[in-house]
Amino acid sequence: MALEAAYHYLQLAAVHVTSTQAILLAAFLLLVIRLARLKTSAQTEWKKQQLPPSPPGKLPIVGHLHLIGSHPHVSFRDLDAKYGRNGLMLVHVGAVPTIVVSTPQAAEVVLRTQDHVLASRPRSPVADIIRYGSTDVAFAPYGDYWRVARKVVTSHLLSPKMVFSKRRDREEEVSLVVAKIKDICATAPGTVLDMSELLGGYTSDFVCRAVLGESHRKAGRNKVFRELTEISASLLGGFNLEDYFPRLANLDVFLRLICAKAKGVSQRWDKLFNELLSEYARTSQPSLHNNEDSSEDFVHVLLSLQKEYGLTTDNIKAILVNMFEAAIETSFLVLEYSMAELMNNRHILAKLQKEVRTSTSNGRKVDMIMEEDLSRMPYLKATIKEAMRVHPPAPFLLPHFSTDACKINGYLIPAGTRVIVNAWALARDPSCWERADEFLPDRFLEDGRDAEVDMNGKDPRFVPFGAGRRICAGANFAIATVEIMLANLIYHFDWKLQSDLEAAGAKVDMSDQFGMTLRRKEKLHLVPSIF
Ligand code: HEM
């Protein structure tokens, strides 16, 4: 118990570190390492001269951890401004030398020019447990298996055709949410809605439907999948001690502490998948994968492809866990941040309302905005893009890892180095963006200053989905999920803060909380009224 408490303290200290905590952290780690008779040799291959510059003040054991506050994306941006050169900086996060990339030019080299060398992932003990030996797409090391898994996902589960085939499912899920809000407005006007719960429920229900088929809402499984997704994301997210003190993580006692929770959640995923797969085997024949234009669920598609791609059942489970974890939280965050920013920028909300409410075919009042209406809504698209610029759901993308030595901007990046791209800093760089910290969707309109900036990985200033070989496989899926929901929320309802806040002219608190994703600290509470 004492050790477990110490571990949790250390986890917290690693992200909320103060100088006193840093000293305690260092002392504790020294003790444990002595006891384990470990020798530290993590940096032997690092020869100083050619490496990117480092901030001063590196401490034994903790490295630069004491310089990284509770918002590492902000700390890294500020440290780079002081100590980085050419957009690169070498930071020792615990025992792990990590290259932090902070300018578009350096990001271009990492994600495109040297992509072939930097497209792997560092090993994560937690991902090994939750993702079946990291045999999903996102955590698989670069190589043959990753190529196969990625092809299965991009060609069959998340292809534009497949995403399009899910449009009626999306519309139906949105209509359920709209009906629920209308009902609340009619029966209890003035009710304060927990938008975080509502929007999280929508993305989770739709992803569940896409992955498993419709029947799982009725069986209540969507709630269990959502819960497991949240636990897994919290285990994988942020700065995990085991990732940054790998030798420590190899100690038996730490392995048990760190891994116990991951094993628990992994067993629950596994039990659920075993039940599911045997139900599928009993009730239906897997169909042929060339039927993907019918709105088939991902489980059926994967089962039909299993032999052709040589996938084991565990591979299928790993890919399914990946789909849940990658899709639910990220899409929800974009929706929640969009609504929060619109509430703080009422003139933008009014402009968006005008567009959405006049863009239906013939401008008639309709029951639902349908996906075919969305092409007439450039301001809606610009609003979502701007929400992702100011609040990228994955501020550091996923960590990259060099499989070979390479040079970036004249600096050596040795083989086996962890590389973090600070996508948050790129998207807020004042030398690239006018009024970089402000929410200004107009910048992305046809006549706007940044009209030509897209988010499909071609422009290194703006890479919310990453770029190059490891670019997000689900960008189309995500955008489709977000657009139809936001359009309908804006079309059907007027929105206000709860009355006392509204009267006081209060703003929505936009503080965020760092993890693998950048979440809002506070839940979003709003009062709808039917338009
Ligand atoms: C707004 C929503 C989303 C955002 C912002 C986002 C962002 C990202 C980012 C930053 C990466 C890592 C890129 C890199 O390492 O360079 C990634 C990877 C990935 N994403 Fe997404 N994502 C979103 C939604 C989705 C959805 C809906 C799915 C699937 C249904 C998905 C599936 C994946 C997969 C499979 C990978 C791993 C790609 C690889 O390593 O080859 N994502 N995503």
Please mark out the parts with pLDDT under 50 across 5 or more consecutive residues, or reply none: 1-24, 35-42, 286-293
Strand portion: 5-15%
State the shape.
globular
Query: What is the total tally of β strands?
Result: 11
Largest sheet: number of strands, sense, barrel closure = 4 strands, mixed
What is the radius of gyration computed over CA atoms, rounded to a whole number of angstroms? 24 Å
Bound molecules: protoporphyrin IX containing FE
DSSP helical segment count: 22
The first-to-last residue Cα distance is: 55 Å
Helix content: 40-55%
Mean pLDDT: 87
Task: Give the neighbour order of strands across the main sheet.
Answer: 1-2-7-4
Please tell me about this protein's structure.
- This protein is an alpha+beta fold.
- It is built from 22 helices and 11 strands.
- The strands form 4 sheets. Strands 1-2-7-4 form a 4-stranded mixed beta sheet. The chain has a 3-stranded antiparallel beta sheet with strand order 3-11-8.
- Strand 1 (88-93) and strand 2 form a beta hairpin.
- The longest helix is centred in the middle third of the chain and has 32 residues, at 252-283.
- The termini are far apart.
- Mean pLDDT is 87; it is low at 1-24, 35-42 and 286-293.
- It binds protoporphyrin IX containing FE.
- Protoporphyrin IX containing FE is lined by residues 137-138, 150, 153, 158, 322-323, 326-327, 330-331, 334, 393-394, 397-398, 464-466, 470-474, 477-478.
